[in-house]
Amino acid sequence: MLKRYVDDPRDASEAQIAQAANDTLPTVWPLFWSFRLMVALGFSFIAVMAYFFWRSSFRGQVYPRWALWGAVAVIPTPWIAAELGWFVAEYGRQHGQWMACCQPHCRSVIFRYRICC
Question: Which residue, 7, 43, 102, 108, is most buried by CB atoms nearer than 10 A?
Answer without folding.
Answer: 102
